[in-house]
Amino acid sequence: MKEEKQLKVSAIKNGTVIDHIPSGNLFKVVEILSLNRCKSQLTLGNNLESKRLGTKAIIKVADRFFADDEMNRIALVAPQAKFNIIKGYEVMEKRTVELPDAIVGIAKCINPMCVTNHQPIPTKFNVISKKDVLLQCCYCDKINDQEHLVIITKRSIEALN
Ligand code: CTP
Ligand code: ZN
Questions:
Q1: What angle do CA 4, 46, 81 make, to 5 degrees?
Q2: How far is residue 2 from each of residues 5, 6, 11, 128, measured CA to CA in Å?
Q3: Ion ligand 2 — residues with CB under 5 Å?
Q4: Among all ligands shown, which has an atom nearest to the Cα of 58?
């Protein structure tokens, strides 16, 4: 039988392919990169087969290239993500992501008593473990782990203001 080699999501000519996103976190990546407001061609694939992750999600954004700090923010929800820079249909570069030492905004503090949940101040965390994604709130010292991480949506920021 002929081996099936078709791409599940069609190739792009120029832009960025974000690959190896855990299936459950596709929409968190969309949120963090504000792709809901993206005007260029955007294709999403979810629950695709992956040898490494079991299932994975993929995002393809035409004509869009991300800055290092934007890519690194994704490490919060997709530490194994790879950013493939595509030019003329070729993969020119593959970038892995690394959590920064501190995170401002993006995630909520899980401590209901934390001042950031009551006043319109941006959250701030020190990353105390990059491997296990452990964030310590700079305001209340609560340690937030990846499993309980709640991403701040644009809507919830508006609600605070
Ligand atoms: N891709 C694409 N459009 C292109 C070239 C590549 O959408 N013009 C996608 C591929 O479908 C793949 C990703 O970009 O999802 C990376 O491509 P490639 O490096 O060729 O695939 P792999 O070797 O499978 O990547 P990895 O080793 O990172 O899993
Ligand atoms: Zn806190």
A1: 95
A2: 9, 11, 21, 50
A3: 109, 111, 114, 137, 139-140, 142
A4: 1
Tell me which CATH code domain 102-160 carries.
2.30.30.20
> Which residue in the block uniquely carries the two structure tokens 């974000």?
18
Walk along the chain (161 residues) and give the pLDDT tens digit of each residue.
455 667 778 899 999 999 999 999 999 999 999 998 889 999 999 999 988 878 999 999 999 999 999 999 999 999 999 999 999 999 999 999 999 999 999 899 999 999 999 999 999 999 999 988 899 999 999 999 988 888 887 655 445 44
**Domain locations in the chain as residue ranges:** 15-96, 102-160
16 CA distance to ligand 1 middle (Å): 10
Same topology, domains 15-96 and 102-160? Answer is no
Give residue ranges with CB within 6 A of ligand 1. Answer: 7, 11-12, 17, 19, 58, 60, 82, 84, 86, 89, 91, 94
CATH 3.30.70.1110 fits 15-96, yes or no: no
